[in-house]
Amino acid sequence: MFKKFRNSWTPFLILAGTAGLLLRVLFVEDMEYKEDEEYNFIQTQMIGVTHPWPWHGMNSGVYLANPGMSIWVFAILAKLFRIHEPTALAHAVQGVAWLGICLIIPFAYRWIQDRQERQLWLWAYALAMVNPFLILYQRKLWPEPFLPFFVMLTWMAWWKRSKFWPAFAWGLLGACLGQIHMSGFFLAFAVFIWTLLWRRQHTHWRGWWVGSTIGALPLIPWALEVLQTPIHETISVGLREIIQLKFWVFWLTNPTGLHLGNPLGILRGPSQWDQLSDFIRYPLIGTFPTYLTGMTHLLVAACCLWVFARGLKTAVGHLKHPQEILIGRSSSTLFLQNAAFILCGALMTLTGVTLKRYYLNTTFPFEFILFARMANPKTKSGNNILIILWLAQLFISANFVAYIHKNQGSITGDYGQSYRALPKH
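Above: the chain's sequence. Below: its structure in token form.
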């Protein structure tokens, strides 16, 4: 089986895409539907009917109002497809999220010439399709599911930035990323600085400047609103957030899919293990627990330790040329990966604000690319480990969707009651 996967990508890519789509769209009525989700849906029904297009959205996790584009993306979908039900909007958002991951396929085959580099992108696509965290986030009515679509368009534009229109698109999309979710501001700035420092001679800067300026225009009313709000009453910062290095912890652990304890919160107690104490019993045969989900978590943990050990060994082997590796001169993929991993991570961390795992949707798909790079899929052992991890994460994600469906949410966790279980007015 593993040999077939190595020799023919097409069936595997189709299988991964199909699995990823089903994991996102099945049992749509089991979606989370709390304050944020309800707000985003209600806005789509009022905008252009009883309310004008807004210049800012709801408050963010750092208590600053989000830019208006964080609502526009929902409103445009609702208007385009004439959506009047939360579940229909959820399906539309899930479709955009899935399509964003799918953009890796044409990008990898048309933009990436090196075969081994292309393999990293294809593995990022496959892993992202079944990753439990992405399944969780992309079943929500949140702005974050839109990010993979827009960041992939950004990478496409950046790749051809030596010409005016691609550079224009890069600047325009970069300005929009932060308006969809504010984490995008950090990524856009990091890529701009990284490119200005190390690849400025290959960029049509006038095109980028025009695109950035036009893209930033909707920010003016939002910025005026922010300036009128006392900053000490909104943003909460602290040294503790800085020293925890959450960005890099999330970056390295997101591709593993370990674990969904926070949204499930089962039998919450003094340890993280208490959060998984019910879910790991699944799937059930009647009322008999198989604990296959728990054993799969252990398998994933063992495989990931192997991947990290191999990655560390490879990194140590490249210490003779640290500047070349840190900058990423050897390929555009490595260049962008390092801009996101090093500079974007540093910028987010040094703000001292509370970072959430889902903020890293804005750096898609480079978490998965680095993970695949550490596994080294050009080797038989690395490729086989990635296949095992793909199958294991598919199993965990499928059981997560089934668990939420059976229990109508998770009332002891952050997930809460599913939309299906809520009283309808």
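The two ends are 51 Å apart (CA to CA).
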